[in-house]
């Protein structure tokens, strides 16, 4: 039952994240990306402050000065900066496809930084997944779009954030981490504005889009927390890849995107490599559990 609840929550979280991306991309046509990050950060910070206080937790904690949290902040900045620019400047479908490589980077990072054992088959799957990323980016070819590198930066940033979250002090709740994660977007947006020009007054449509992006972002983060705490990680995590399905649908319906065959094939390779890696991880846990029971 917990796995079912967690899986459903994960699918809904990915749908909400995709809607958040869609509204940010729509708003970026009239509002500078830096300003969007500021407003998005303000709204998300306020929402998670309320949720944190409702749980009887403090907003500020000395634990935020730990190396893991400071690393998480840097990775959050890189992830949000890169991915927001990617969805603003490139097709939503291709940016979302590249983002799906993040779990592969997390597995590789867990082996390097936490000493987790990763067998040769999973290393091969990780390398094949990166081949899928290269198929989408296509460096050196005429179809290469430099802005797609922002999606790679975003993917690496989010993967680093996930790894740093794992090392975060146990006394910090997910709600508190949400406060810090959204708050750091405010100074990040301010820095971006210094390079992209001044603030503009959003029109009615842009204002609604930014509000909608913030609401869906908060809901998505909450549902993601529910998903990761409800079922087995190895069962729930593969449903992260439904985000690509939602992104492809929204890209086609809202932005009239038509990914070419190579982009679609690269997407399939990334998702296939990620699912295989997670399933192998699940099998490894099952073997360990059976040996322990014996």
Tell me the Rg in angstroms. Answer: 19 Å
State the low-pLDDT regions, or none: 289-294
**Structural class, from secondary structure content?**
mainly alpha
Principal-axis shape equals globular
Total strands: the figure is 0
Q: Approximately how much beta-strand content do the residues carry?
A: under 5%
Using brief descriptors, characterize the structure shown.
single chain; 294 residues; mainly alpha; 13 helices; 0% strand; disordered C terminus
What does this structure look like?
This protein is mostly helical and 294 residues long. The chain has one domain. It is 77% helix and 0% strand. The protein is globular and about 50 Å long. The C terminus is likely disordered.
């Amino acid at each position: 039952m917990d796995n079912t609840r967690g899986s459903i929550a994960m699918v809904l979280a990915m749908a909400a994240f995709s809607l958040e991306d869609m509204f940010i991309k729509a708003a970026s046509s009239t509002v500078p990306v830096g300003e969007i990050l500021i407003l998005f950060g303000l709204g998300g910070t306020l929402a998670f402050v309320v949720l944190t206080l409702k749980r009887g937790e403090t907003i500020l904690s000395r634990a935020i000065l730990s190396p893991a949290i400071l690393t998480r902040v840097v990775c959050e900045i890189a992830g949000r900066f890169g991915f927001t620019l990617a969805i603003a400047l490139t097709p939503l479908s291709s940016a979302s496809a590249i983002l799906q490589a993040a779990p592969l980077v997390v597995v590789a990072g867990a082996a390097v930084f936490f000493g987790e054992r990763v067998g040769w088959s999973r290393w091969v799957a990780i390398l094949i997944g990166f081949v899928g990323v290269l198929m989408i980016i296509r460096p050196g070819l005429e179809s290469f779009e430099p802005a797609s590198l922002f999606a790679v930066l975003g993917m690496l940033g989010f993967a680093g954030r996930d790894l740093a979250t794992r090392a975060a002090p146990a006394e910090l709740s997910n709600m508190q981490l949400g406060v810090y994660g959204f708050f750091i977007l405010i100074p990040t947006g301010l820095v971006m504005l210094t390079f992209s020009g001044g603030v503009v007054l959003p029109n009615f449509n842009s204002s609604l889009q930014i509000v909608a992006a913030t609401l869906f972002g908060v809901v998505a983060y909450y549902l993601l927390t529910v998903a990761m705490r409800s079922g087995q990680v190895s069962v729930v995590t593969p449903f992260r890849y439904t985000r690509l399905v939602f992104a492809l649908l929204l890209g086609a319906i809202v932005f009239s995107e038509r990914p070419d065959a190579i982009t679609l094939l690269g997407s399939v390779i990334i998702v296939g490599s990620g699912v295989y890696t997670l399933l192998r991880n699940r099998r490894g846990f099952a073997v360990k559990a059976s040996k322990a029971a014996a």
